[in-house]
Model the fold of this input.
Amino acid sequence: MDKVRHVLGISGGKDSAALAIYMKQNHPELDIEYYTSDTGKELQDTYDLIENLENFLGKEIIKLPSISDESLNPFDHYIKMYNGFLPGNMSRWCTKKLKLEPFEKFVGNDLVISYVGIRGDEDREGYISKKSNIQSIFPFRKNIFSEDVTGKFLSNSNIINVLKYYESIDLGEKRERIFELINEETSVNFSQTQKLNSLLDLGIKEYNQAVFQFLQTTEYPLSKEHEFPLIINEDILVRDDIFRILEESGVGVPQYYKAIEFEVNGKKSTYARSRSGCFFCFYQQKIEWIWLYEQHPDLFLKAMEYEKDGYSWIQDETLAELVQPDRIERIKEEYIKRKERKKSKVQSPYLLDILDDAEGEGCASCFI
Done:
């Protein structure tokens, strides 16, 4: 039980792939296990990325089975069990059955450090396991620790201990200000987030060292590690860094991120997919469904086949209705209008700056 496993889930999207590359390049001393969960309904680009990544890592990316019979398609197996009930925002059984349960079986009761590819320009935490033997670390962010660790470390009841942890660290001329911040209790007028950011601004490495000392007094997996190389990590990686890592490594950016031109009523624009995951992911926007219809009509037809008995991927609209010529025209026109409203923003060649919905990697958040 005292041996700590280091794991990193590959969703097939850009961020998790870039994190795997980053960890190999910057922390080769860590024996990381790479894994992925195949739903059986991914785009070929996803499988190509995983193969390229395996070649770069020189290490197998373990494929986690969600069902014991390898001759069956995992998603089709479970949708039959659910009597054709499609997954959606309110019932993500696909996440539970195809991602989370295989992962929890994979790690069992072992102590696990799980590396998560949430970037420094994202304001989200992602899925955090409730299992006490799993601890998430976020190497791309200013704060590499999860919210639960931060909450306990910066709680008002822990101020005396935090002062003690910082006492052992060389703080230089910032010492007085840091101790002032530590002594100030969080309140309605001084939130825990404000306190966290203020301490990080005064020294990321110093903050990490203090948190690591705190973790030694807990039951978190890192309490079993005598040292942890990411404590001195000060990198904050954003979207452009992710694409750079993928390109420079030779692994490459999945083709579905790259812009494809279209024209509607004399106006030209471009579209692409914004996330990895199943080709029929219910999180994708309507313009992405149109992209699938026009770029992968065979897959779109397969997605349509699941819509029956009143179940549809999109609330209040079937895919058959979505791809009526006048409906496609309206969706494209509205998409162009949204882009025009955002012209003041710097445009990404991968279109990820112009999407209204929060950017994500499909089920990337399922990798704990």
Notes: The longest strand covers residues 4-9. The chain is about 40% helix and 10% strand. The radius of gyration is 23 Å.
